[in-house]
């Protein structure tokens, strides 16, 4: 049995998220220097020792978030494992390619994108207010870090930040220097860059994007399978994603043999188990341990939705289908 205190330690409240403003190499680069990064479950891919980690135990994947004011963007980078985002607040443009010009898609609140591995991608808040996107990264170590487009590393160096080959950031404006024996992160060569495709926009939107109101319709009587085998976005990135609404919640308590993470999109949800109950609000994240019998109930009238992420035995690696 899990006590109330033990479960509360597994819940990260939106209002208690602790940001890091120096998480990545573009933290000083104009246009990207107002980003806030949040590491909710697992260490994520932050390059800064200042990054606060809310829950260190990883369930086979990492959960994070990015908060940005209008017109702030995240620079072009790639990952070796899955990177999934859903828009919690605002309106966001996701773009990709060597120079960010191969394609783009605009996501509204609740929309979800499973960005293919092996392509450079970035994102920008194009709304009028502070925006927030929630992230799921494949693997316990999230693929070992970020692969930056060469121009990002060069731009960062011009503004005082140097990334070491050890994956750590050094701020020359603060008097930091690379430790003895540590070299700067090398730029990708022209030959290495050939492995990063200029993916057509139709391929990404068709295979990797799901719209919130489509999911609301699909989840009318049962949870909508969003990412996973036989899901709307067919993929095996080491986890599955379901979408639940008021009409699709299990009628009784259920046990999941695997780790389960609940990420609330809309409404307030009561999570109940033998030992206690707690209410989850939009932006809250709850890590439910395996084999815990629990139930979910919308605790207020009106719109209610959440994403449920479950560990699978599939490898955390490549999601790109050429």
UniProtKB/TrEMBL annotation:
This protein's record includes keyword Metal-binding: yes
InterPro entries in UniProt: Cupin_2, GPI/OXD, RmlC-like_jellyroll, RmlC_Cupin_sf
Domain Cupin type-2: 70-133
Keyword Metal-binding tagged: yes
Record's keyword terms, sorted: Metal-binding
Sample GO molecular function, one term: metal ion binding
Descriptive protein name: Cupin
Lineage: Bacteria, Pseudomonadati, Pseudomonadota, Alphaproteobacteria, Hyphomicrobiales
């Amino acid at each position: 049995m899990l006590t109330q205190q033990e479960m509360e330690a597994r819940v990260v409240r939106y209002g208690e998220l602790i940001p890091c403003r120096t998480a990545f190499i573009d933290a000083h680069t104009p246009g990207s220097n107002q980003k806030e990064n949040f590491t909710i479950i697992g260490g994520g891919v932050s390059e800064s020792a200042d990054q606060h980690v809310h829950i260190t135990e990883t369930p086979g994947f990492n959960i994070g978030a990015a908060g940005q004011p209008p017109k702030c963007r995240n620079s072009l980078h790639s990952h070796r494992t899955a990177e999934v985002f859903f828009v919690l607040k605002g309106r966001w443009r996701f773009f990709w390619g060597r120079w960010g010009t191969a394609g783009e898609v605009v996501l509204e609140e609740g929309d979800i994108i499973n960005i293919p591995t092996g392509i450079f991608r970035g994102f920008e808040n194009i709304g009028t207010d502070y925006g927030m996107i929630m992230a799921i990264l494949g693997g316990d170590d999230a693929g070992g870090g970020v692969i930056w487009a060469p121009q990002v590393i060069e731009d960062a160096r011009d503004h005082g930040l140097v990334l070491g080959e050890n994956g750590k950031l050094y701020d020359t404006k603060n008097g930091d220097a690379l430790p003895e024996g540590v070299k700067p992160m090398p730029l990708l060569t022209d030959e290495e860059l050939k492995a990063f495709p200029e993916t057509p926009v139709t391929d990404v939107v068709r295979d990797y994007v799901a719209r919130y109101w489509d999911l609301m319709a699909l989840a009318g009587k049962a949870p909508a399978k969003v990412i996973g085998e036989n899901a709307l976005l067919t993929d095996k990135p080491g986890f599955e994603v379901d979408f639940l609404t008021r009409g699709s919640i299990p009628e009784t308590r259920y046990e999941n043999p695997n780790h389960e993470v609940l990420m609330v999109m809309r409404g307030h949800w009561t999570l109940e188990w033998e030992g206690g109950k707690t209410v989850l609000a939009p932006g809250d994240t709850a890590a439910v341990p395996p084999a815990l019998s629990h139930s979910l109930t919308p605790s207020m009238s009106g719109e209610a939705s959440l994403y449920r992420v479950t560990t699978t035995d599939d490898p955390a690696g490549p999601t790109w289908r050429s």
